[in-house]
Specification:
3 strands, binds zinc ion, alpha+beta
Length: about 60
């Protein structure tokens, strides 16, 4: 399972990895804004997507 926290404005992944991290920590590290589109991101308005990889690790 891969966890992603993405910008709710442009969909750029702010965090992607196998560990589920607190959105607050991720957004704090990103200075509460998207590095691509510059949208301000609130920890209460984040979007977390959990993506399951398709059989890449057999
Ligand atoms: Zn963005």
């Amino acid at each position: 399972m891969t966890y992603e926290i993405v910008c709710s404005s442009c969909g750029t992944p702010l965090y992607s990895g196998f560990d589920l991290r607190s959105p607050g920590d991720v957004l704090k590290a990103a200075d509460y804004k998207c590095r691509k589109c510059g949208a301000k991101l609130s920890p209460t308005k984040f979007q977390v997507e959990v993506k399951k990889l398709d059989g890449s690790f057999s």
